[in-house]
Amino acid sequence: MSRIRIGQIGIGHNHGEAKMLAVRKFPDLFEVVGYAEENPAWLDKRGGARGYEGLPRLTVDELLDRCDAVLVETDVWNLTKAARQCIERGKHIHMDKPASGTPGEFQALLDTAERKGLVVQMGYMYRYNPAVVKCLEHIRNGDLGEILSIRAEMSTYHSAPYRKWLTNFNGGVMYILGSHLVDLAVYLLGKPLRVHSFLKRSQFEGIDLADNNLAVLEYEKALVRIFVSSVEVNGWGHRCFVVSGTRGSVNIEPLENTCVMTYADTQIAKNPYEDEKIDEGVKDIPKNCRYDTMMQDFHDCITGKAKNPFTYQHDALVHNVISEIVGGVNMLGTDIG
């Protein structure tokens, strides 16, 4: 099996160290050449983290000279710019989410990657969630019939410092977390006819932030409801992905740690006034293994063993929809969080 020489640009993204730790679990798949970070604030805050122990810190040029693929893990506002550097140098990228820059800037990156035949894997981890994968199986098999409704929530009770960091972004927590759910909804239903946004500011603890948000994606027959809050007590336990169709439904709640997935179809739920369903018994992924399958798939896509089902066109559409939801991708980029 071919080993991929891989490096990481940036340590500022909140998922950056976890991605590096995941890659380092698979020395038969990846040869880690090092990481690049020039911001002294991030070096002071995260440079000594376990994920980077024993790795050389390189300049961006040195890193790109030595690797075949790159984990792009900069501050969110620099993601597309850094990814563009990698693509221009002919490197496959895992790019954390959500994409930065305007839809046009991100589209240009994807167009170049497609023209060069380079893998672009976005860091939407729920693509690899076992319950979501099982849900997609049901949909492909026709078990749910025609999809008419998706209800998705990804909320948290964030600390004040994190909520202050979220003020960097148009749409606040909807931009950062809601993008995960837009990714899944668009994968299932494609481009919405219309997008409706309700970006509410609770002013909790005096922080002026879009922290209590709802987006509705309208399709010809279906409705998608995406709720994302930064001020929801036990929000982790309320995270869900519910898909309903003309023949059946899937309810994943909570989404992870601990994941609970139930399934019902017209043969199981015969009484419309009773809660009739079966537990799918989906095995959860431990928190420290959240990105393992994603990184293995990145390797397989690069080596040709697998094909990324999330196309360049899909990734562009996700960025377009989230941009419409939040009123345009715009960020201050003044606080490392």
Explain briefly what this protein structure is:
The chain is of the alpha/beta class and 337 residues long. Helices cover 34% and strands 21% of the residues.
Overview features:
about 325 residues; alpha/beta; Rossmann fold; Dihydrodipicolinate Reductase, domain 2; eight-stranded mixed sheet; five-stranded parallel sheet; 13 strands
Blueprint of the fold:
Layout: E1 4-9, H1 16-24, E2 30-36, H2 40-46, H3 60-66, E3 69-72, H4 79-88, E4 92-95, H5 103-116, E5 120-122, H6 130-140, E6 147-153, H7 160-166, H8 173-189, E7 194-200, E8 212-218, E9 223-229, H9 235-238, E10 240-245, E11 248-252, E12 261-265, E13 278-279, H10 292-303, H11 312-326
Helix pairs in contact: 4-5, 5-11, 8-11
